[in-house]
Amino acid sequence: MAIHDRLRNSVASCLVLLLTACGKPPTSMSRTYVVAYRVIGSAGITFDSVRYEDAQGTSVRVVAPASNWSVAFSASSGAYVQASAWALASAGGASATLRVMWTESGVSTASDSSTATTGAPGRFALSIPRRQI
User: What is the CATH number of the domain that holds 60?
Assistant: First the structure.
Protein backbone atom coordinates (compact mmCIF):
# COMPACT_ATOMS: atom_id res chain seq x y z
CA MET A 1 0.00 0.00 0.00
CA ALA A 2 1.43 3.37 -1.00
CA ILE A 3 1.98 6.19 1.46
CA HIS A 4 -0.66 8.20 -0.36
CA ASP A 5 -3.27 5.46 0.22
CA ARG A 6 -2.36 5.15 3.92
CA LEU A 7 -2.72 8.89 4.39
CA ARG A 8 -6.10 8.88 2.66
CA ASN A 9 -7.30 5.99 4.90
CA SER A 10 -6.07 7.81 8.02
CA VAL A 11 -7.86 11.02 7.04
CA ALA A 12 -11.05 9.08 6.28
CA SER A 13 -10.85 7.30 9.66
CA CYS A 14 -10.38 10.61 11.48
CA LEU A 15 -13.38 12.12 9.71
CA VAL A 16 -15.56 9.16 10.66
CA LEU A 17 -14.51 9.47 14.31
CA LEU A 18 -15.06 13.25 14.30
CA LEU A 19 -18.52 12.98 12.78
CA THR A 20 -19.46 10.24 15.24
CA ALA A 21 -18.30 12.29 18.22
CA CYS A 22 -20.07 15.44 17.02
CA GLY A 23 -23.34 13.58 16.55
CA LYS A 24 -23.59 12.49 20.18
CA PRO A 25 -25.60 14.64 22.57
CA PRO A 26 -23.59 16.20 25.41
CA THR A 27 -23.52 14.22 28.62
CA SER A 28 -25.33 15.86 31.51
CA MET A 29 -23.01 17.25 34.12
CA SER A 30 -23.75 16.77 37.76
CA ARG A 31 -24.34 20.06 39.53
CA THR A 32 -23.25 20.76 43.08
CA TYR A 33 -25.54 22.61 45.47
CA VAL A 34 -25.17 23.98 48.97
CA VAL A 35 -28.22 22.78 50.88
CA ALA A 36 -29.13 24.65 54.07
CA TYR A 37 -31.89 23.83 56.57
CA ARG A 38 -32.95 26.35 59.23
CA VAL A 39 -35.55 26.72 61.99
CA ILE A 40 -36.50 30.12 63.35
CA GLY A 41 -38.84 30.77 66.26
CA SER A 42 -40.10 33.96 67.83
CA ALA A 43 -40.13 34.50 71.61
CA GLY A 44 -42.19 31.76 73.27
CA ILE A 45 -41.28 29.04 70.75
CA THR A 46 -39.13 26.04 71.67
CA PHE A 47 -38.32 23.26 69.25
CA ASP A 48 -38.58 19.62 70.38
CA SER A 49 -36.70 18.30 67.34
CA VAL A 50 -35.93 18.72 63.66
CA ARG A 51 -35.57 15.91 61.14
CA TYR A 52 -34.01 16.49 57.71
CA GLU A 53 -32.64 14.49 54.79
CA ASP A 54 -28.89 14.83 54.21
CA ALA A 55 -26.90 14.50 50.95
CA GLN A 56 -26.67 10.71 51.31
CA GLY A 57 -30.45 10.34 51.73
CA THR A 58 -30.16 9.64 55.47
CA SER A 59 -32.79 11.01 57.82
CA VAL A 60 -30.99 13.02 60.52
CA ARG A 61 -32.69 13.98 63.79
CA VAL A 62 -31.58 16.94 65.91
CA VAL A 63 -33.03 17.01 69.44
CA ALA A 64 -33.89 20.36 71.07
CA PRO A 65 -32.34 22.65 68.45
CA ALA A 66 -31.91 26.33 69.30
CA SER A 67 -34.44 28.81 67.97
CA ASN A 68 -32.07 29.90 65.21
CA TRP A 69 -30.57 26.48 64.40
CA SER A 70 -29.15 25.74 60.94
CA VAL A 71 -27.05 23.20 59.09
CA ALA A 72 -25.50 23.31 55.59
CA PHE A 73 -23.76 20.77 53.35
CA SER A 74 -22.94 20.04 49.71
CA ALA A 75 -25.21 17.84 47.60
CA SER A 76 -25.23 16.80 43.95
CA SER A 77 -28.10 17.25 41.53
CA GLY A 78 -30.52 14.39 41.93
CA ALA A 79 -30.35 14.53 45.74
CA TYR A 80 -33.51 15.05 47.78
CA VAL A 81 -34.50 17.58 50.42
CA GLN A 82 -37.21 17.22 53.05
CA ALA A 83 -37.65 18.27 56.66
CA SER A 84 -39.99 18.32 59.64
CA ALA A 85 -39.86 20.23 62.92
CA TRP A 86 -41.91 19.85 66.09
CA ALA A 87 -42.39 22.86 68.31
CA LEU A 88 -44.14 24.14 71.43
CA ALA A 89 -45.63 27.62 71.77
CA SER A 90 -45.97 29.02 75.28
CA ALA A 91 -48.50 31.64 74.11
CA GLY A 92 -50.66 32.63 71.17
CA GLY A 93 -49.25 34.93 68.50
CA ALA A 94 -45.86 33.19 68.36
CA SER A 95 -44.44 32.19 64.99
CA ALA A 96 -42.02 29.59 63.66
CA THR A 97 -40.48 28.82 60.28
CA LEU A 98 -38.73 25.76 58.87
CA ARG A 99 -36.83 26.48 55.67
CA VAL A 100 -34.61 24.63 53.18
CA MET A 101 -32.56 26.40 50.52
CA TRP A 102 -30.47 24.85 47.76
CA THR A 103 -28.00 27.07 45.93
CA GLU A 104 -25.89 26.40 42.88
CA SER A 105 -23.09 28.94 43.29
CA GLY A 106 -23.33 31.78 40.80
CA VAL A 107 -26.35 30.23 39.07
CA SER A 108 -29.51 30.04 41.17
CA THR A 109 -31.10 29.67 44.59
CA ALA A 110 -34.39 27.96 45.33
CA SER A 111 -36.14 27.25 48.59
CA ASP A 112 -39.17 25.80 50.30
CA SER A 113 -40.55 26.64 53.72
CA SER A 114 -43.26 25.95 56.26
CA THR A 115 -44.46 28.71 58.61
CA ALA A 116 -46.99 28.75 61.43
CA THR A 117 -48.38 31.42 63.73
CA THR A 118 -50.05 30.10 66.86
CA GLY A 119 -53.49 31.14 68.06
CA ALA A 120 -52.97 29.64 71.52
CA PRO A 121 -50.31 27.79 73.52
CA GLY A 122 -49.63 24.25 72.36
CA ARG A 123 -47.65 21.85 70.21
CA PHE A 124 -47.50 22.00 66.43
CA ALA A 125 -45.47 20.66 63.52
CA LEU A 126 -43.88 22.18 60.44
CA SER A 127 -43.20 20.10 57.34
CA ILE A 128 -41.46 20.43 53.98
CA PRO A 129 -42.38 17.61 51.58
CA ARG A 130 -39.65 15.60 49.85
CA ARG A 131 -38.45 16.94 46.51
CA GLN A 132 -35.56 16.26 44.19
CA ILE A 133 -33.05 19.00 43.41
Answer: 2.60.40
Stated pTM of the model:
0.76
CB 107 within 8 A of CB 57: no
Q: What sections of 1-88 are H helices per DSSP? A: 3-22
| 22 strand-pairing partners | none
Q: Domain span at residue 74? A: 32-132
In-domain check, residue 118:
yes
| 48: region left, alpha or beta (phi > 0 left; psi from -120 to 50 alpha) | alpha
In-domain check, residue 50: yes
Q: Walk along the chain (133 residues) and give the pLDDT tens digit of each residue.
A: 555 454 445 444 443 444 444 544 444 578 999 999 999 999 999 999 999 999 999 999 999 999 999 999 999 999 999 999 999 999 999 999 999 999 998 899 999 999 999 999 999 999 999 999 9
Nearest Cα to Cα of residue 38 among 67, 60, 81: 67
